[in-house]
Specification:
By secondary structure, this protein is α+β, with helices and mostly antiparallel strands. It has seven helices and seven strands, in the order βββααββββααααα. It has a seven-stranded mixed beta sheet with strand order 2-1-3-7-6-5-4, with helices on both faces. Strand 5 and strand 6 form a beta hairpin. The longest helix is centred in the C-terminal third of the chain and has 67 residues.
Length: 309
């Protein structure tokens, strides 16, 4: 899907066709739309294909008068049993001499915020500044998702304190996987931003320098938060694993003690039920009393040794 937007005054408004200084949003473009972009605008086909590759790493590349910046952005991916998992996907930002183009595999909150005019003070004619605003919103989106992960993790931990259930454990495992994706993407995004900051690929003005500094601060903060949450979640999973193993040991200890107690009456009844000579008292009450006495003494001994705790 191709959409066209241009800043009119202080508002970002949709337009019907491509104009100089407009922003072109390509969400999961079809082959005909890709041909339209590369044919009418002269965009490098390799730039568009790279942006649509799920495994494409964050990078910056220049070809003649065109610039490609690929960055990873976060999105929510819901799996079975209402388990929330976060992942990342690449977004290509192509800057030409007349336009700026974003290419992405699917709908995402960052592009939606720009399309709905939620991001203020953006000018599509100022392509470098528009690029930096996009990068700033992506960094902010990472921070928002990390805060959401922290809240979901805290809620799941509280539920696990009440009762050990697979649902919460699977949720924590999904969040741990999400943090791995985030950590990898944030590190590669930071490297790309450092290259932009050196000013070799993009000419930066004073206002752009300040905006880029803000983007770098946000990305570094997100990277640090991701590392902290990863360590906390990893330690939490290790702790719950130890608790589960300890609970299993307690159950096995209790079951073993009960098995020993149940074996005593069986042994006694087995002996007196056989044709064995010289056993004391063949009356019914004696083996029953003996079995109860031995079982009671054994149960008391096991209880004093803490086998039922």
């Amino acid at each position: 899907m191709l959409k066209y937007f241009k800043t009119e005054g202080q508002q970002l408004l949709p337009i019907a066709a491509i104009e100089d200084g407009c922003w072109i949003s390509a969400i999961a473009p079809t082959e005909s739309e890709i041909v339209h972009l590369t044919g009418q605008l002269g965009v490098e086909p390799g730039f568009v294909r790279a942006a649509l590759d799920e495994e494409e790493a964050s990078r910056i590349e220049r070809e003649d008068d065109q610039l490609l910046v690929i960055v990873d952005l976060p999105f929510v991916q819901k799996e079975e049993e209402k388990t929330i998992v976060y992942s990342t996907m690449p977004m290509g930002i192509i800057v030409t001499s007349k336009n700026i183009i974003t290419v992405c595999l699917g709908e995402n909150p960052v592009v939606s915020e720009f399309e709905r005019g939620l991001v203020k003070n953006v000018q599509t004619q100022l392509k470098t500044q528009f690029l930096l605003y996009l990068l700033l919103r992506i960094a902010t989106r990472f921070l928002i998702c990390l805060k959401q992960i922290d809240k979901i993790s805290s809620y799941s931990e509280k539920q696990l304190h009440k009762s050990m259930r697979n649902k919460e454990l699977i949720q924590l495992l999904g969040l741990e996987k999400s943090l791995v994706y985030f950590s990898t993407s944030l590190k590669s995004n930071e490297v790309t931003l450092e290259k932009i900051h050196r000013g070799r690929m993009i000419r930066l003005y004073e206002e752009d320098e300040e905006l880029l500094e803000d983007v770098l601060i946000e990305i570094r903060q997100a990277n640090e938060m991701c590392g902290i949450y990863t360590n906390i979640l990893s330690n939490t999973m290790d702790a719950f694993s130890s608790i589960i193993n300890n609970n299993l040991n307690i159950v096995m200890k209790t079951l073993t003690s009960l098995t020993v107690l149940m074996a005593i009456p069986t042994v006694v009844s087995g002996l007196w039920g056989m044709n064995v000579n010289n056993l004391p008292s063949s009356n019914f009450w004696f083996p029953v009393l003996l079995a109860l006495l031995l079982t009671g003494c054994t149960a008391l001994a096991l209880f004093l040794r803490g086998m039922f705790k």
